[in-house]
Amino acid sequence: xxxxxxxxxxxxxxxxxxxxxxxxxxxxxxxxxxxxxxxxxxxxxxxxxxxxxxxxxxxxxxxxxxxxxxxxxxxxxxxxxxxxxxxxxxxxxxxxxxxxxxxxxxxxxxxxxxxxxxxxxxxxxxxxxxxxxxxxxxxxxxxxxxxxxxxxxxxxxxxxxxxxxxxxxxxxxxxxxxxxxxxxxxxxxxxxxxxxxxxxxxxxxxx
Length: 207
Hints:
Strands 1-4-3 form a three-stranded parallel β-sheet, covered by helices on one side. By secondary structure, the protein is α/β, with parallel strands linked by helices. The longest helix is centred in the N-terminal third of the chain and has 29 residues, at 36-64. The chain has helices at residues 15-30, 36-64, 66-74, 76-81, 116-119, 129-137, 139-145, 182-188, 191-195; strands spanning 2-3, 92-97, 102-107, 155-160, 165-170. Helix 6 packs across helix 7 (139-145).
């Protein structure tokens, strides 16, 4: 396993801002200015629909068009910008291709190290210290807990995002999708597959 567990050049976000957000949210709900159901629906939209669907479109296009795939693997930031999914920050996006012999897994404890424009909101477990540390030390066991069993001959590479470098996994295209178009292919791609904790399957559950 290639370990990219280096020191972050940023610090953990203090708890005070998070507490302030929670207090503000509670106050707005209490005063009837925000509907909790609408707030939950908004969060769900960004976590599961808008963001991940952008990344899924990038993956589907790479599966279909070799020229785009080559640009994506060479200069992901520019290739993704072609689809108008552009981050406002200074971070650089790198796409990691999964193959039958190599599986890539991305970790980071800070949501600021997450490619929001193509993946939406990060799952809660992605930001946890136990996930990051265990994924670096024993990625095969962590993936097994996610239901992903890899052969022992498959190399697992763990990549640690930073404030300047974000990663997106290009999963393997599943067999039986040769006749599918871009929309059909994109519908198969889950957020977890683009992090590396799942594979893309036909008829598989999306997360």
